[in-house]
UniProtKB/TrEMBL annotation:
GO terms for cellular component: plasma membrane. This is Lipoprotein-releasing system ATP-binding protein LolD. The lineage of its organism: Bacteria, Pseudomonadati, Pseudomonadota, Alphaproteobacteria, Rhodobacterales. Its EC number is 3.6.3.-. SMART domains: AAA. It is an enzyme of class 3 (hydrolase).
Length: 219
């Protein structure tokens, strides 16, 4: 469950966002839409602890992420949050499989064992990348890199799934397949899913759609 209360955050550039309240409950699938540059990625960064609010609270399953130290937030992100970054953020020198397994290098209490490897390989196979697991990101297409990034977000069965344009570079069939996997994950584990998307044709599949310009006062 994600709970945001009275959060204010400003970059040094002066851009700021302000959210009074936002809750995504267990198993809920929420889409966030809104014009470019209004702060949707900033919201995801606040929810995952990549940036810390100036004031207010971000609670993930009851734990206040903004109260943790940097390294604790990194560990929490790896073990409990699945984040599909808009620019994928894959590690150049690692294979697709090792990229998917990356959370196991950082996450607290995660064991990189046979089961983890089987899960990573299974996800890559589900995404049609079964024959390309040993390739590095530069040897994959844009859409393939995006699928690796989604597989990495799912590998530890996180309780919180954050997706920033996770289906933006995919063709219609892969878009539907990627969303199926994200949704199956939320159903299986009771994860809360918050997905920023410009794909308006996908919106009917979500439980709720939030218009970011109504959620946040930006300046
Ligand atoms: N690290 C940063 N430092 C300073 N300003 C930033 C930083 N990151 C983003 N911004 C600014 O914050 C504003 C919101 O950016 P953000 O990426 O959150 O918007 P967005 O709604 O996700 O946009 P898009 O839909 O294009 O991805 C923009 O004006 C951007 O220039």
């Amino acid at each position: 469950m994600i709970k945001v209360s009275d959060v204010r955050f400003a970059y040094g550039s002066g851009f700021s966002i302000s959210i009074d309240t936002l809750t995504v409950t267990t198993g809920e699938k929420v889409a966030v839409v809104g014009p470019s540059g209004t702060g949707k990625t900033t919201l995801l960064n606040l929810l995952s602890g990549i940036v810390v609010p100036d004031t207010g609270q971000v609670l993930l399953d009851g734990e206040e992420i903004s109260g943790l130290q940097d390294h604790q937030r990194r560990q929490m992100r790896a073990s409990r949050i699945g984040f599909v970054f808009q620019e994928f953020a894959l590690v150049d020198y690692l294979s697709a499989e090792e990229n998917v397994l990356y959370p196991y290098r950082v996450g607290k209490g995660l064991k990189l064992d046979r089961t983890a490897r089987d899960r990573a390989r299974g996800l890559l196979a589900d995404f049609g990348l079964g024959q390309k697991m040993r390739r590095r990101p530069a040897q994959l297409s844009q859409g393939e890199r995006q699928r690796v990034a989604i597989a990495r977000a799912l590998v530890v069965r996180p309780r919180i799934l954050l997706a920033d344009e996770a289906t933006g570079n995919l063709d219609p069939a892969n878009k539907a397949a990627a969303l199926d996997l994200l949704f199956a994950q939320t159903d299986e584990t009771g994860a809360a899913l918050l997905a920023v998307t410009h794909d308006h044709e996908l919106l009917p599949r979500f439980d709720r759609v939030i218009d970011f310009s109504e959620l946040s006062q930006t300046s």
